[in-house]
Write a structure and sequence with these properties.
Layout: H1 7-31, H2 40-54, H3 59-79
């Protein structure tokens, strides 16, 4: 059937879905963290990096992926104008 996903597409969509879910769960944690507390996002991303390491990615692969994402977020953010601040009052831009 033409509408069926290949195994590669299924894995990719599953990983992207997990990323979406992880981001929403991070937001929920942040929304329920005091504004003057050390950010929990740092700890959550640290946990993610640890899981990537435990899953066989090298430190170079992880570092390069995060650097590429950090460089790309500005392009993405510029396309999606937001007013005000981030979840816990930090500047989005």
């Amino acid at each position: 059937m033409a509408d069926e996903l290949s195994p590669e597409e299924s894995r990719l969509f599953a990983a992207r879905g997990a990323a979406w879910d992880f981001a929403r769960k991070c937001r929920t944690v942040e929304e329920h963290t005091a504004a003057d507390a050390k950010t929990s996002l740092d700890a959550l991303i640290n946990d993610l990096v640890s899981e990537l390491w435990d899953s066989g990615f090298s430190t170079d692969e992880i570092r390069a992926a995060f650097a590429a994402a950090a460089n790309d977020v500005r392009r993405y953010a510029d396309r999606h104008e937001r007013n005000g601040t981030g979840i816990r009052g930090t500047a989005v831009r």
